[in-house]
C-alpha cells in the first residue's frame, strides 16, 4: 500500500470533501462511496471515507501530484435522480464557512437566497405564531444570515469544481474490506487498496459497518415529499401564505412544511407520527390514483384549516419517505484507515435543519485536521483521530437539538411547544442560561406558553369568522 504525503488542504482538500457530498443526498439511501489514495515518503498509509450534508471537498488539478482522489457514486449521472432534493439553509459557522474555505463562496453567491430566510410557524387553524423576516439581510452582511440554496444548485456548483475524471458514476458500494480498504461494488469489480476511505454513503453506510455494529432505527416519523410546480399562477393563496421562504404547521402529532425553491415551485413535506410502512402501503394501494392518495393523506389532517389542506390538494409527484436516525451521541472506536462524515456518521431527521450544515462542517474540519497533521509532520491517521474527537461532541449537540424539535413538533400542540423550545435555543446562542442566576426567577417558558396559547384561542375565533364569511359570500 502506498504511503502518505505532505499536501495542502485549503482549498483543495476542502473542495474534495465537499465534492464527496455533492453527488449524494443526505436523507436518501445512497450507494455513494469515496476514497482517497495518497502516495509519498513522509506519512503512514491511512484510509477514510467522508460524507457531508451540504458541501463537499473537491479534487482539482491544484491537488499535489503525490495525492490522488477517487469518488464512487451510485447514480449513473449527475441528473439521473428524479428527486434532486429541496432547499437548504446554510449556516455561517458551518455551511457558509466551508464554501468560503474552499474558495467557492463567490460562485455560490448568485444561488444564495437571503429572502428565503422568511418563515411562518402556524398551528392547524393557520394561526401565525411567529413570522421570521429580515429584509435587510439581502447581502449576507449579517453574522446571523442563513441563506437558502437549492440542493441541486449546490450540487452542480460543487461538481463543476471537481476534476470530472475523479468521479466514477454508476458504482453501488456493496462492501468494504476492513483491513486494506478494498471497495467491492455490486457490478463485480473492486477498487483499492486506499490509504484513506471516507464514509460519505449516508444512512445505510457500508463504510460504517467497518467501524461499528450500530445501525439506524426508525425515527417514528414518516410521510411524503411532493411538489407544487407553479405556485404563483395557479395557487396565489398558497404562494401568499408561504411567502419567500418556508411555511411550517404543527398540530395533532402531524406536521406540514412548504418551502419555496429558486424556480418558484414549492416543495411540500407531509410528516406523520406513525407506522414505518404507512407511506409505502398507501402508495401501493392508491399510488396509481393521485386524487385518492391525497384523500387518504388528508385523513391525517382532520379539522385543519382549508388554507393548509389546499397545499396537499395542489401537490403532485408524491414520494413515500420514512425517516431514520442513529442514537444521540453515537460514536465508534477509531480505526486506522476509515472515518465517516455527515449522515454516515450521525444520521438525524431534518427537523432542526442541521444535517447538511453538520456534514459541511465535518468536511471542513476533517480537511483542516489532515492539513494540520501534515504540516506538523504527524501521521495522517492522527489528523483523522483529531477530527473524530472534535466531531463527536458537535454531532451530539446537533442530534440533541434535532430530537428536541422532533418531540415538540409532533406533540398535540406542536407549534406552541416548538416555539417554547426556541426560548432555550435563543438563550444558548446568546450565551445565557435561563435556569440560573436572576433569569431563574423569571418563568420565561411559562410566559411564552401562556402568550402563545392565548394567541391560539384568538386564532380559533378568527378561523370561525373567516369560514362563516366564506359560507355567506
From TrEMBL:
InterPro entries: FAD-bd, FAD/NAD-bd_sf. One of its GO terms (molecular function) is monooxygenase activity. Pfam families: FAD_binding_3. It comes from the Eukaryota. The keyword Repeat does not apply. Keywords: FAD, Flavoprotein, Monooxygenase, Oxidoreductase. Residues 43-76 are annotated as: Disordered. Residues 195-397 form the FAD-binding domain. Signal peptide: none annotated. This is FAD-binding domain-containing protein.
Amino acid at each position: 500500500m502506498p504511503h502518505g504525503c505532505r499536501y495542502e488542504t485549503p482549498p483543495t482538500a476542502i473542495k474534495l470533501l465537499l465534492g464527496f457530498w455533492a453527488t449524494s443526498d443526505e436523507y436518501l439511501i445512497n450507494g455513494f462511496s469515496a476514497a482517497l489514495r495518497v502516495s509519498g515518503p513522509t506519512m503512514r498509509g491511512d484510509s477514510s471515507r467522508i460524507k457531508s450534508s451540504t458541501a463537499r471537498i473537491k479534487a482539482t488539478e491544484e491537488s499535489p501530484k503525490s495525492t490522488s482522489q477517487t469518488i464512487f457514486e451510485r447514480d449513473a449521472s449527475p441528473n439521473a435522480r428524479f428527486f434532486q432534493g429541496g432547499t437548504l439553509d446554510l449556516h455561517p459557522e458551518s455551511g457558509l464557512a466551508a464554501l468560503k474555505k474552499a474558495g467557492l463562496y463567490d460562485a455560490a453567491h448568485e444561488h444564495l437566497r437571503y429572502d428565503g430566510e422568511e418563515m411562518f410557524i402556524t398551528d392547524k387553524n393557520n394561526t401565525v405564531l411567529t413570522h421570521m423576516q429580515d429584509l435587510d439581510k439581502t447581502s449576507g452582511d449579517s453574522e446571523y444570515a442563513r441563506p437558502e440554496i437549492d440542493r441541486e444548485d449546490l450540487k452542480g456548483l460543487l461538481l463543476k469544481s471537481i476534476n470530472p475524471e475523479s468521479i466514477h458514476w454508476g458504482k453501488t458500494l456493496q462492501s468494504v474490506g476492513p483491513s486494506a480498504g478494498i471497495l467491492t461494488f455490486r457490478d463485480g469489480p473492486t477498487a483499492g487498496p486506499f490509504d484513506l476511505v471516507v464514509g460519505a454513503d449516508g444512512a445505510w453506510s457500508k463504510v460504517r459497518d467497518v467501524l461499528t455494529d450500530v445501525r439506524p432505527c426508525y425515527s417514528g416519523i414518516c410521510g411524503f415529499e411532493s411538489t407544487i410546480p407553479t405556485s404563483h399562477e395557479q395557487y396565489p393563496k398558497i404562494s401568499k401564505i408561504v411567502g419567500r421562504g418556508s411555511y411550517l404547521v404543527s398540530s395533532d402529532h402531524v406536521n406540514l412544511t412548504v418551502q419555496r425553491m429558486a424556480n418558484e415551485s414549492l416543495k411540500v413535506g407531509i410528516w406523520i407520527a406513525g407506522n414505518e410502512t404507512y407511506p409505502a402501503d398507501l402508495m401501493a394501494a392508491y399510488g396509481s390514483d393521485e386524487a385518492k392518495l391525497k384523500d387518504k393523506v388528508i385523513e391525517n389532517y382532520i379539522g385543519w384549516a382549508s388554507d393548509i389542506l389546499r397545499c396537499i390538494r395542489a401537490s403532485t409527484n408524491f414520494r413515500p419517505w420514512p425517516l431514520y436516525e442513529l442514537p444521540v451521541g453515537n460514536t465508534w472506536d477509531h480505526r486506522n484507515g476509515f472515518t465517516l462524515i455527515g449522515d454516515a456518521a450521525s444520521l438525524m431527521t431534518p427537523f432542526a435543519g442541521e444535517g447538511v450544515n453538520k456534514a459541511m462542517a465535518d468536511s471542513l474540519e476533517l480537511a483542516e485536521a489532515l492539513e494540520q497533521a501534515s504540516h506538523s509532520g504527524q501521521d495522517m491517521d492522527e489528523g483523522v483521530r483529531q477530527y473524530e474527537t472534535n466531531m463527536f461532541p458537535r454531532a451530539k449537540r446537533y442530534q440533541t437539538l434535532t430530537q428536541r424539535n422532533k418531540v415538540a413538533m409532533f406533540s398535540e400542540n406542536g407549534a406552541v411547544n416548538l416555539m417554547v423550545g426556541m426560548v432555550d435555543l435563543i438563550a444558548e446562542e446568546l450565551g445565557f442560561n435561563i435556569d440560573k442566576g436572576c433569569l431563574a426567577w423569571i418563568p420565561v417558558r411559562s410566559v411564552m406558553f401562556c402568550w402563545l396559547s392565548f394567541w391560539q384561542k384568538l386564532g380559533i375565533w378568527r378561523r370561525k369568522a373567516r369560514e362563516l364569511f366564506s359560507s355567506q359570500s
